[in-house]
């Protein structure tokens, strides 16, 4: 008999992973212009869609980018992105304020990377150091202070792991597919990174 509950839960697990994969694809596209490939993350996505013969999707991305100002946003968009930035930084702080997360790349980390990419694409084209990056760095400093008040290396370690989670978000789209294929299905864990990270922690506990 089909267990519809597990089937739906498993689909939700895969859907969340696919959303992360798509977001990471955008993040990679947003980084490539820093190395001379393309003009922006959104135009790179549109070009990829056109090359894959997904013409309607490519045209929609281009139109959306133009509608959002193509790097010259109106005040309302800046306000919205500013609110998003504040909320994401609060989520990032909440994820790590108690110590290392059980997931190497939690949602808060990929959201922080995403808001930076959106800021680069829509608010300050071509500028890596922007308000979003400053806010994220300040949040990492606050994480280090909150965890251990700078009394030892623990706070810095947690902040560094949070930074690693943000950086990994940019390459997740490249390394996740083989991990999905190699890993076993477990709907109680979000993705391959969490399974691997928890497995490492389990081994460490047994060794202790």
UniProtKB/TrEMBL annotation:
Keywords: Membrane, Transmembrane, Transmembrane helix
Membrane-spanning residues: 75-93, 105-122, 128-147, 159-180
Keyword set includes Transmembrane helix: yes
Domain of life, per lineage: Bacteria
Name of the protein in question: SPW repeat-containing protein
Species this chain originates from: Actinomyces ruminis
């Amino acid at each position: 008999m089909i267990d519809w509950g597990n089937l739906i839960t498993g689909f939700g697990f895969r859907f969340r992973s696919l959303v992360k994969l798509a977001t990471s694809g955008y993040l990679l596209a947003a980084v490539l212009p820093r190395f001379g490939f393309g003009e922006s993350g959104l135009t790179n996505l549109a070009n990829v869609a056109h090359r894959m013969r997904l013409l309607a999707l490519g045209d929609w991305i281009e139109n959306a980018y133009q509608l959002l100002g193509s790097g010259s946003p109106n005040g309302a968009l800046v306000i919205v992105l500013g609110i998003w930035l504040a909320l994401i930084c609060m989520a990032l702080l909440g994820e790590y304020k108690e110590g290392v997360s059980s997931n190497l790349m939690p949602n808060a980390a990929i959201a922080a990377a995403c808001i930076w990419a959106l800021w680069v694409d829509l608010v300050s084209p071509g500028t890596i150091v922007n308000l979003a990056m400053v806010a994220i760095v300040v949040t990492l400093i606050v994480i280090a202070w909150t965890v251990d008040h700078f009394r030892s290396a623990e706070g810095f370690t947690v902040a560094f792991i949070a930074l690693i989670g943000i950086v990994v978000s940019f390459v997740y789209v490249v390394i996740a597919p083989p991990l999905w294929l190699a890993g076993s299905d477990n709907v109680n864990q979000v993705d391959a990174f969490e399974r691997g990270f928890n497995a490492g922690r389990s081994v460490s506990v047994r060794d202790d």
